[in-house]
Amino acid sequence: MDSNSQQGIDAFNQEFAKYDQVEKLQRYRLSEGEEDHFDDEYVLQTCDISEYLYGGASGKAKFAHELGSSLEDIGFAIITGHGVNNDHYKQARTLITDLFENYSVESRMKFRAQRHGSVNQGYFPIKETTIIHPDLVEGWVFCRRAFDLDNNPNYKWEDYWPEARFEESFRKIVLAHEQLIIPLMQSILQYLKVDINTYNERLTHTNFGFRLNYYPPLSDGEGDTGGRMLGHEDVDLFTILPASEIEGLQALHRGSMKWVRVNAPEGSIVLNTGDYMQRITNNRLPSTTHRVSRPQNASLNNKARISFPMAVYVWEDEILEVLPGLGKPKYPPVRAEAFHTQITSKYYGDDYAKS
Predict the structure, then answer these.
(1) Which residues, in sequence order, are bridge partners of residue 142?
(2) For a 10 Å CB count at each end of the chain, is N or C smaller?
(3) What are 19-37's pLDDT values in tens digits?
(4) Concatenated DSSP letters for 140-161?
């Protein structure tokens, strides 16, 4: 590859196929291009999780069907009725803006991202989220150990955060989202006609990656060649993403090979499936390609875009294997850490992988 392709400006996903641990036949340019096609008629399914939580057997069946069918079709769904206080989301946006605008890069670099277990945790400077594409985003990844969740007597907030108030505030969101993990997984398993309790233990106090994304305002012409974040698939079981105030999230529909603009109402959650899920469902639920591009409304270019997705994993020693009843397994069992780091070594370098 030439230097541009190595940076991902003109690269296609298939150039990095050797890192994939699930089948990805789709071919797309990592950066948004003029040749891309959009399906502006596609509307993502909205699923009210309160029906699953409080609607009895019929409510569970309805939610499971709506969620599962949407994930099987495009790998995305919009979740409402989740009960998370929207004030927590509003406060999160304020704190993320404060963290990235009022603290110096030097102070953030004290928490520079390093691998711990499967996940690269810590601060990522702008254009350094990956080594293959200069994304126009700063990021900060916090996994379970960064939060005071498990009564660890040795926990010290200052190992992870510039001030204790950040941990205290974001912990409210993490705890609220944690209450949704098992119901969401049970709903997916119900749709697949698998024992809904299969993952209960593995997802109790499980690992996760809570990422703060700060996309700075765009100057005129900036980002035309690459959007804000490259096209990619998440590595996890699923990602819990509170709806952003600024548009730009797009998903690739594998059936039509057209991009769909993901628009979700304030206070809702966007849910998408990742590589772990595609692996254990034997390709039934896809790890869906998505990216963040410039907003269609040019007046929003001068505003920072904030997002804070929570990626749901399992612990490193867990074994990922195809669920029963989903046909002849296309994939052998694999340890979660080996699976995870082989995929993400395309972002961090070949020495990141661990067998």
Answers:
(1) 210
(2) C
(3) 999 999 999 998 888 889 9
(4) EEEEGGGSS-S--TT--GGGT-
pTM of model > 0.85: yes
Q: Are 282 and 326 in contact (CB under 8 A)?
A: yes
CATH number, domain 3-352: 2.60.120.330
State the average pLDDT for the chain: 94
The DSSP result for 54-105, as a single string, is: HSHHHHHHHHHHHHHHHHHHTSEEEEE-----HHHHHHHHHHHHHHHHSS-H
The residues spanned by each domain of the chain are: 3-352
Phi, then psi, of 222 in degrees rounded to 5: -70, 135
Identify the residue whose tokens are 């890069």: 105
Check: CB of residue 230 under 8 Å from CB of residue 31: yes
**What count of Cα atoms within 13 Å lies in the side-chain half-sphere of residue 296?**
9
Which of 86, 210, 189, 120 is closest to 111 using CA atoms? 120
- Distance, in Å, from the CA atom of 218 to the CA atom of 351, rounded to the nearest integer, reads 34
